[in-house]
Amino acid sequence: MEFSNLLFAFALTIFAGLSTGIGSALSLLTNKTNKKFLSVALGFSAGVMIYVSFVEIFVEAKVALTAALGIKNGNWATVGGFFLGMLIIALIDKLIPESDNPHEAHTVEEMDGNSEHHKNSLMRTGIFAALAIAVHNFPEGLATFVAALNDPQLGIPIAVAIAIHNIPEGIAVAVPIFYATKSRKKAFSLSLLSGLAEPLGAIVGYLILRPFLNDTLMGLIFAAVAGIMVYISLDELLPAAKEYGEHHLSIYGLIAGMVVMSVSLVLFI
């Protein structure tokens, strides 16, 4: 495996993870959340992730696994890996209290200087949101890294979709920490650091799995990645997109994401 491919895949993962800083900057530099933009953007991200999961990643997993295990066992392994990925991300979500879940919709306006929350409570909210994001970003980092490693052209749209989905997470961390500390620097730094779990997940996952990497394991990882991305889209992105804006805006974004993803895949055949 070429070092340049490893470097490129890791760079994409860093880009996706650190996009929490974009959300943080948006919340700290503006007095109002552009809800319509976020609604369309999150829908777009979901469209990209759902389309690429079913049309590209799941298919690649199936091809690899049927070649390694035979048609019947390969198909079963693909389906099993897909739902295993969903189970993993669902368990992570289950372990995080709903009040601290960073995928709940957050806005700049929800907390102001006259907030009823005490500073300690706000700080706790921000810290827990940062930890929750770090836990979520760990498998997402591995997913982005593996996809980019296997197919750099496929890795780019996945990294962009993950990056868009990380923007509201930056808001979730920055808003409460800023109003607790009145420090934009601290709020931005903690928000940015929470995104570093993504490249960390890529490094740790790759180092652990590297000695065992073969066609079967890569196929299973790809199937799990497809499951993780579909779950994130249905459980987190689309509900958040609807909360930020009108129902139709999120669906328009979803369709646009699918169109862009389909055209990009056709262009690079």
Map the helices and strands.
Layout lengths: L2 H16 L1 H10 L5 H35 L1 H25 L23 H32 L1 H30 L2 H12 L1 H13 L5 H30 L2 H21 L2
Number of domains: 1
Radius of gyration: 19 Å
Overall strand count: 0
Average per-residue pLDDT, rounded, comes to 80
| Main sheet specs | none
Low-confidence stretches: 113-117
Residue share in helix:
over 70%
User: Judging from the principal axes of the Cα atoms, what is the shape?
Assistant: globular
Give an account of the 3D structure.
This protein is mainly alpha-helical. The chain has helices at 3-18, 20-29, 35-69, 71-95, 119-150, 152-181, 184-195, 197-209, 215-244, 247-267. Helix 1 (3-18) crosses helix 7 (184-195), helix 6 packs antiparallel against helix 7 and helix 9 (215-244) packs antiparallel against helix 10. The relative contact order is 0.24.
